[in-house]
Amino acid sequence: MDYIALLNLMQDYYQWLFTLLMLLLYPKVAKVTLRVFEKTVIGRDDVHRVKRARWLIKTALLIALLMTLMIMWGIELRGLLVVGSSIFALLGVGLFASWSLLSNVTSFFTLFVQNYCRIGLWVRVVDGANFVEGKIIDMTFLNVVLETLDGNRVLYPNNLFIVRPVIVLSKAPEKAAKKAEKKQLPIGVKR
């Protein structure tokens, strides 16, 4: 096969070759990026936050790869801007509509960025005259999972966790002593 035929073949199929090359390079680029990230944050944050940050980095790299491939294949980004602005509007509605699942997901990202409430801390979430105390054992897209002193798990919605006053306790709360019950004498028996 001569070089001119090879160049013609590459010219005809350059989009496919570039796509294949990008898909083959993505895992290596993600691995190198994550190594650099881990070297910069080593010992600074908790394990769960690092895991989430790793996931966000992989997702951002994948989105960048898809955008590059779309541009390469001639897909206009104007349509994507319309879709992106619609998603942004939905996220805005989600922040204010407390009944929405979208509100819990957007609140998750707010909690993710904040550093004062993280896994392993004891908190008291105040809701009027009531409160919930527990240790944060997980932060998911929809809920903050608290474990109470009794070992029960409370799934507290992210959007409520953000809008309610949250007291970060310096130590685990002590279990309240049970009040001695008054024993009542049977009817007809005098003291």
From TrEMBL:
Molecular-function GO terms, alphabetical: mechanosensitive monoatomic ion channel activity
Subcellular localization, as worded in the UniProt entry: Cell inner membrane; Membrane
Gene3D superfamilies from the UniProt entry: 2.30.30.60
SUPFAM superfamilies membership: Sm-like ribonucleoproteins
Record keywords, A-Z: Cell inner membrane, Cell membrane, Ion channel, Ion transport, Membrane, Transmembrane, Transmembrane helix, Transport
Protein origin, superkingdom: Bacteria
Pfam families recorded: MS_channel_2nd
Mechanosensitive ion channel MscS domain sequence ranges: 101-163
Transmembrane segments: 13-34, 55-75, 81-102
Record's subunit section: Homoheptamer.
Family designation: Belongs to the MscS (TC 1.A.23) family.
Annotated protein name in UniProt: Small-conductance mechanosensitive channel
Taxonomy of the source species: Bacteria, Pseudomonadati, Pseudomonadota, Gammaproteobacteria, Vibrionales
